[in-house]
Amino acid sequence: MEIQALLPSFHAPLHRQPAFHRQFCRFKRLNTTSELQAPPQFTSSSSTTSVSIPSHKVTVHDRQRGITHEFFVPEDQYILHTAEDQDIRLPFACRHGCCTSCAVRVKSGQLRQPEALGISAELKSKGYALLCVGFPLTDLEVETQDEDEVYWLQFGRYFARGPIERDDYALELALADE
Fold it and tell me: Which domains does the chain have, with CATH numbers?
């Protein structure tokens, strides 16, 4: 079987990737930067084909907890999922890129997040990202954000147009359903 058929799609979420691939991408959690070691690279068992998936060091400054996490993430793995595989707890909710619970601000480095629906192109251009659907492209340093703050930046202008007018007819219909 050809190696390309064995490897998951670059866009495939972790939960859809083959178990053998996740096994090769697990790394021991280390407590300090001085103990941080580069992860092993995945190599095909075929003697003619060798595939190496680059990994990047990801540093997450968790502002809410006052903790800094450092770990390696392969380019084809979501940052949040890899952190969880290493028993690192980071904020999240939907896991699908639709909310702002895992939002971070990129301090340095680059990531790819094609499925990040929870933040607008405008916020992405200002350095916001979602860890649940983010793939590292380089070594990366990010800082967690207050979910309400990011939600306001994303949706606040739509809700800040003044009070909502009372619709008595809609209220009657809603109460009649109960």
Answer: 3-161 (3.10.20.30)
